[in-house]
Amino acid sequence: MYHLTFLLGIVFVWASCELVVIKRQKDRIYTGHVLFEVLLPMWSICAQYCSRVKVCKSINFISWNKTCQINYAEPGICSCELLESVGNSFVMASTFPEKLAGQCNGNDCNLNQSCIPNEMDYYCVPLPINVSENFKTPNEEPQNVALGKTCGQSSTYLNEHAEHVVDGLANTHHHTQREQSPYWWVDLGNFYNIMRIEVINRHTSGYRLHDLDIAVGTRLDDMSIFAHYVGPGKNHEHLVFQCSRYTAGRYVNLTITKGPEILHVAEVMVIACPVC
Ligand SMILES: *[C@@H]1O[C@H](CO)[C@@H](O)[C@H](O)[C@H]1NC(C)=O
Ligand SMILES: *[C@@H]1O[C@H](CO)[C@@H](O)[C@H](O)[C@H]1NC(C)=O
Ligand SMILES: *[C@@H]1O[C@H](CO)[C@@H](O)[C@H](O)[C@H]1NC(C)=O
Ligand SMILES: *[C@@H]1O[C@H](CO)[C@@H](O)[C@H](O)[C@H]1NC(C)=O
Question: Which residue ranges have their beta carbon within 6 Å of ligand 3?
Answer without folding.
Answer: 128-130
